[in-house]
Amino acid sequence: MKDQRHTRREYTAPELRRAALPAQPLTLFQAWFRQALAANLEDATAMALATADADGRPAVRIVLLKHFDEDGFCWYTDYRSRKGRQLAENPQASCLFYWSSLHRQVRISGTVERLDEATSTEYFESRPEDSRFSAAASRQSAVIDSRDALEARVAELRSRHPDGRVPRPAEWGGFRLRPRIYEFWQGREHRLHDRFEYTLEDSAWSLARLQP
Question: For 172-210, how does the pLDDT look when each residue is reduced to its tens digit (9 = 90+)?
Fold first, then answer.
């Protein structure tokens, strides 16, 4: 169980040629993302989000992408969570999408900012009622004595808001990652993978092939 040196899988995605890639990395991401959704992959919107504190100590976790556009990639969380505190100290991050059955991954790195209050409230109010109460009851990443204590907080909030309209907590909201680097990886036979990196330089994107 401890030795996995002989565990193997082969990657057989088609070739990825520089001449076929668009000038804008968002165009390629959109195409790959649509294909992941069309393939009905479980958790196609899941991304590993890596952050670091002011001393450079890293942390990584899975979050769900909620929307993206030319300005960046957005998710929502408690600002008091570990990732929220790290981003307050060091507003830079990388996220990674891994679509295993498509033999693809995309890494995106850049600076991070909070979304405005109106956008955070709009998304919070669009969530299912149970999810809104859970978010309002939990101080994410803080220690708590038991699950019973957590469920008691939810029950107390429900008693205060019997109509189900619990307000968005002031310390809960969205973040946006503004990309400066994209890396597109496509798995190929014999580990001779295709990798292309887009880098933002003086408001323009440069493109380079990376060795696998």
Answer: 999 999 999 999 999 999 999 999 999 999 999 999 999
> Catalytic pick from 5, 191, 195, 209?
191
Residues 6+ apart with CB under 8 A from 15: 188, 194
Secondary structure (3-state) at 120: helix
Cβ count near 190 (within 10 Å): 8
Active site residue 160: no
201 forms beta bridges with 204
Amino acid letter, 85: R
Contact, 124 vs 135, CB < 8 A? yes
Global pTM value? 0.94
Q: Is 119 in a helix, a strand, or coil?
A: helix
Q: How far apart are CA 175 and CA 167, in angstroms?
A: 19
Residue type at 16 in one-letter notation: L
Q: Hey, is 118 helix, strand or coil?
A: helix
* 18-52 pLDDT per residue, tens: 999 999 999 999 999 999 999 999 999 999 999 99
